[in-house]
Amino acid sequence: MSGGGTTAYGRKSFQRSKAHFTDRITADGQDGWPVEAGRYRLVVSRACPWASRAVISRRLLGLEGALSLAIADPIQDDRSWRFTLDPDDRAPVLGIRFLGEAYDRRETDYPGGVSVPAIVDVPSGRLVTNDYQRITLDLATEWTALHREGAPDLYPEARRDEIDAVMADVYEDVNNGVYRAGFATGQDEYEGACARLFRRLELLAQRLAGQRYLVGDQTPGFGDTVDFDHIKRHYYQVHSSINPTGIVPLGPDLPGWLTPHHRQELGGRPFGDGTPPGPVPEAEQVPARGRP
Amino acid sequence: MSGGGTTAYGRKSFQRSKAHFTDRITADGQDGWPVEAGRYRLVVSRACPWASRAVISRRLLGLEGALSLAIADPIQDDRSWRFTLDPDDRAPVLGIRFLGEAYDRRETDYPGGVSVPAIVDVPSGRLVTNDYQRITLDLATEWTALHREGAPDLYPEARRDEIDAVMADVYEDVNNGVYRAGFATGQDEYEGACARLFRRLELLAQRLAGQRYLVGDQTPGFGDTVDFDHIKRHYYQVHSSINPTGIVPLGPDLPGWLTPHHRQELGGRPFGDGTPPGPVPEAEQVPARGRP
pTM (2 decimals)? Predict the structure, then answer.
């Protein structure tokens, strides 16, 4: 499982289950977890696209100082995500070796999978949420008091219906579609998933023909949080039922998003009344090996 | 093994062994196998790049009538190449179910692998040669009496040193290089093979920058003998240690060689004093499913 909820592989088709821990961290603390600077730690893997979304939101909103970050090793073992990139194989601040320990402190013998992104309450060491879809929305709408000056509105009220509709299609056919194709165990299943994925990509390309972003003037923020080394090592070394040699392919030399795209010529105000974020804090920069 | 000599896969790096049966079919019959119309059968798999070279030469030289063709199933079983595409799973003319039977008639208990391309003597049913490099050269130089009118000279005397030198590099770094990369069992081995392959491709691209072909005005002949269905099914379904799901990827929609390349603008006389071949005989046309 790469994150984003528990995923079941095997002889049946790919299924992504809903996140089990769905408490919300909110301004009013309705679930017992009020927004508070320095209290929580966001645990991610840079290999995980679902976690990357949370990392990007945190960065655009300038929440680095308020919500600290733990980065798991892209290679899991049978106890799932682990902190083997850190000194003594132990996450700083949280002091745990496996993300699963925070799950255990929250619910003993929880039988589900351990996934990222996850937010852990630092004082108690307990998992608060692994609800990958909700985390990003709440960073945008509930953590506003801690946003940087000039932070863009990532989920503007007037656009929510449109955003939700577009994202439902993207989620089903693209985000999950690539897993359905990649983890297919039969030819028909694979071809069906590919057909659906590429049909959706064509529809999205049509949508993007005349506008810079999928919805409105929404905000760019992709690139400097991406760690290709982690992404590739995770997918090619962990899933040995698909890639038994564990060999990681070389490339790409230069991802497409670094080449001039001229899409700014389509106009729009990508940060609305806000401003772009500053550079990534040094401690969180992607090492040269994984940088595109 | 896809053909072109016995190949050893496993926990050590990829090795291609020399063909074991190296008798030559020549104009003077020096090895007991004189060139003779209708006597021999060329056994190939359209999945095998080494066999494809023999098929292309045969076609350019107009040897279809003189040297008949047997096409093996792209999916081997543990007895190797078989004729399961044919009625009763038996090769017409040769009457055998496995290419290995022709090997057995030649040498009892031959311990090596069964490879294509192979030429079988129809009257005796015995294998003559599986020397994939020699077969093509001899079609060009020894079978001249049976060439079609206007057949190009595929191995002109004045160019042989240059052809041999270029082909030695292509053979080592490209033809075998893709196998070394694809069948690598370790990361370093894979990366080394890739580096060597792409370094060679760059050198070849430099060579091709100012001239249409790798050597002289040499002859085009690529495309209508290529069966993508066979190629893909072979490599993705046979090599289960690399691709355990056996899923065959979709695509490509349109191979690059069908898009206009404008390379004819570099000039040259691709067929020399000869002419292009006619259309592929109907019985040997690549079925629509495998056609690019």
Answer: 0.83
